Amino acid sequence: MSATNLHTSKGLRKMSSCQRQTHPILPYNQDRTPVTLLYRHPDFLQHDTGRHPENAGRLRAIDERLDQSGLPGRCSTPEWAPATLQELLRVHTPGHLDALDALAHRGGGQVDSDTVVSPASMDVARLAAGAATDAVRRVVAGEDRTVLCIGRPPGHHATADRAMGFCLLNHAAIAAQAAVAEHGLDRVLIIDWDVHHGNGTQELFYGASHIGYFSIHRWPFWPGTGAADETGAGDGLGATRNLPVEMGESRDRFLSYFARELEAFADQIKPQLVVLSAGFDAHRADPVGSLGLETEDFVSLTQTVKDVAAAHAGDRLVSLLEGGYNAPVLAECVAVHLEELLDA
């Protein structure tokens, strides 16, 4: 199958030659009751990874816990479409998309020892990326202020031309690029608190001055990137900030370090939108990562990110699920994260 057929078989639009559109960043509609947009969909379960740590059971546990909590009743759940080819090509190469589509069409397989593609995986990944771009559109338009996208597979390890670390498409990067290219924003801040450094996101924006990247992560640890002296290059020098944290650091010091450094970095970037790569594998009970955090620590982390969004971005915050591999613990962490997002 040709590259064109691979893309159009997914119902995606061909990339157009139109120039970048700019739209005003509208204030939040104060006449609306404050809610959080909650993106979740049963199709996210169709990315079949078998007994892999990143499996559909993660989202089943989250859905069950959220439904028990009643929190979704306080949210608005929009309808949305998969990401378009144009949106994907702002971040990923045609060859990357073609290779993953071809693998899915052949029935799936292993990209590497960590990363699985099933027949439905690229449809699911496009749906997750589409949730991120739809969320950006809505918050920039002033429909709502905060968003939680509970999708899979995760994304922050995916580079322009490589799937890795359970990730196929980089949803945070796709969201940030949509904010700039489609909605006329000048400055976006991506915050990443997953226990693993988001090497893909950093690589994609390492030379960019308009999209800042801030990561706190376990060090030394896989994937081996994210040293403190990795601060960007060229025009992007200073627009990347890494906080490597060794195992054994106290929770209080972790939280205060995160808050202090993030606030200072945000003062420098002055973002108009905050995108959060929200991984919960720094929890002490996570089997893949862990930095000794407890569930309640994600309340403090969420509040810090909300404060930054309030100070600089008119409360505009799009949170995207990344890691977290102890399903019951992940579900509790997502619940407290969503509850804090809802706490106006």
UniProtKB/TrEMBL annotation:
One of its GO terms (biological process) is epigenetic regulation of gene expression. Pfam families: Hist_deacetyl. The gene is hdaH. The keyword Hydrolase applies. InterPro entries: HDACs (IPR000286), His_deacetylse_dom (IPR023801), His_deacetylse_dom_sf (IPR037138), Ureohydrolase_dom_sf (IPR023696). Keywords: Hydrolase. The keyword Transmembrane helix does not apply. It comes from Posidoniimonas corsicana. This is Histone deacetylase-like amidohydrolase. CDD domains: HDAC_classII.
